[in-house]
Specification:
By secondary structure, the protein is α/β, with parallel strands linked by helices. Helix content is 45%, strand content 18%. The chain binds glycine.
Length: 357
Amino acid sequence: MPTYQIETPEHRYPAIVERGVIRSAAQHLPAKAGKVFVVSTEDVWRHQGPALADALAGRQHEALFLPGGEDQKRLGPIERLAELMVERGGDRSSVVIAFGGGIVNDMAGFLAAIFMRGIPVIQIPTTLLAQVDAAVGGKTGVNLQSGKNLIGSFHPPLAVLIDPAALDTLPEREYRSGLWEIVKAGIIREPALFRYLSDSSAGVLARRPAAVDRIIEDSVRMKAEVVSSDEREGDLRRILNFGHTFGHALEAETGYTRFLHGEAVAWGMRAAVYLGELTGTVEAADAAAMLELVRRYGPIPPVNRISAANLQARLVHDKKTVQGAIHFVLPVRVGEVKVVSGVDEKLVLTAIERALA
Ligand code: GLY
């Protein structure tokens, strides 16, 4: 059972990658836990709820549903669920289990962070993207109209339970969306994973269990290392935003309805690689290999009728923008990136235009 510890001065919790691990959910509840609220979507609960309900048999629990969809990742549904929790007997001894994709993991985590000033959460991600990124590391939150994840909190979970078998029924588009976060992991810190993704794309795309387990384990190990070294994103954790600065702008520009998060990140990685080339942080051969790997896991849905200038204007609203200075994570070579600010705005616009071309 590969278990990766996230260990910071203040928190310690495991991210466990194991087929069937959902069955162990009750073991991760505190002994004196009160009512357990499983926060999910109706769709996930229909397909995967029975396994979790079996695992929680004997513990007082109830499922509550979020609407699903990035455009619904707002404060309103959180308040509605908090009211329901109070009505249904929730108190400070309650525990939230976040059971779904990245949106559910972020929203349910945030609900736990603020309900009665904070109750514990267990993360059980059911999409590839949530398994390798969203559910690991304690980031929780919701979107504002003006930008992605602009309200939120760090709220580390008691445990992250990652069951690769949960992906067997994941729609193809959702699966590919997660693969781009894994491509990101390869580019920023895992050259061996990058090579594996390049050499074994047939097995990865066919969801062969050995391939799926391998790419999840490498990504979760990497993320556990990074978060353990910098939980609050003061330094090393910023590398995880590779492709996200542009990606978040694209999601906001399209009203959070056209692209899945990983798809926006794929466009964003293209822009970051072109910007790296234009600013000279990365050699052409490495840049070409990165662009090719992003392409390999495509096609990315098209970006018709999106203005590069509008996207550039939106970069200012990103969380990584501090006192007007936009910070870009740019590639150096496969397995290494760096954070750069003060980049010429004309180069940024050119990079976005090339990425979208
Ligand atoms: N998804 C980026 C991070 O967890 O820091």
